[in-house]
């Protein structure tokens, strides 16, 4: 049985949404970060960073939301959440799957902290560049790869949901609003949101 270790109102939302999209049976294991449960020795064996989310699947265990999305989409191809490894769309899928933790999250931190980092040294370039590039990609729609929804939409959609809709750290743009509306209309997103609210 797949076990998803999660905590309400946390980055666990991404993986809750992914698991709900997958239609795979899974057990949610509440890991209450408000009580420090993520620092318990047994939990640190699953995710030594002591963060949520984490996932175990038989002998496999991993942390990091995007990695969990990649693992489930590849381990369970019947979910149709990722192009196959020989599909030319696979390259763009991987780029966008990791765009949220590699670019969206650092850009949000840059905006929040107001830290000036030269674009030549910031791995994500600049916050403006991140959201300009994302806007251009989403304008093509309806999903990040075109007509087909994938795990990359879960990571990108979660990042935008956090940045634009929930915490309003990033100004809204028409392409973001339309994309978020499509994400929010998905039954799996709605179920995950209810679960994540605690």
Automatic annotation (TrEMBL):
What the entry lists under SUPFAM superfamilies is as follows:
GST C-terminal domain-like (SSF47616), Thioredoxin-like (SSF52833)
What's the domain of life for this entry? Bacteria
GST C-terminal domain span: 86-198
Is Cell inner membrane one of the keywords?
A: no
- Per the UniProt entry, what species is this protein from, by scientific name? Bradyrhizobium huanghuaihaiense
One family from Pfam that matches here is: GST_C_2
Q: Under which name does UniProt file this protein? A: Glutathione S-transferase
Provide any one GO MF term from the record: transferase activity
Q: What is the lineage of its organism?
A: Bacteria, Pseudomonadati, Pseudomonadota, Alphaproteobacteria, Hyphomicrobiales
Q: Does the keyword Transferase apply?
A: yes
- Which residue numbers delimit the GST N-terminal domain? 1-80
Keyword terms, alphabetized: Transferase
């Amino acid at each position: 049985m797949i076990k998803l270790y999660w905590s309400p109102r946390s980055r666990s939302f991404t993986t809750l949404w992914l698991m709900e999209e997958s239609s795979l049976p899974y057990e949610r294991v509440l890991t209450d970060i408000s009580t420090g449960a993520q620092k318990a020795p047994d939990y640190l064996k699953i995710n030594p960073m002591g963060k949520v989310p984490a996932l175990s699947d038989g002998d496999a265990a991993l942390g990091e939301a995007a990695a969990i999305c990649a693992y489930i989409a590849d381990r369970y191809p019947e979910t149709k959440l990722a192009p196959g490894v020989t599909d030319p769309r696979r390259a763009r899928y991987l780029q966008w799957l990791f765009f949220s933790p590699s670019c969206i999250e650092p850009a949000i931190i840059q905006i929040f902290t107001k830290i000036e980092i030269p674009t030549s040294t910031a791995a994500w370039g600049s916050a403006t560049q991140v959201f300009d590039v994302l806007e251009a990609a989403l304008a093509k729609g309806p999903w990040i790869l075109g007509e087909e929804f994938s795990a990359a939409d879960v990571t990108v959609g979660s990042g935008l949901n956090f940045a634009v809709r929930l915490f309003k750290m990033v100004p809204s743009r028409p392409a973001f609003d339309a994309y978020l509306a499509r994400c929010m209309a998905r039954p799996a997103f709605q179920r995950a949101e209810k679960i994540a609210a605690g």
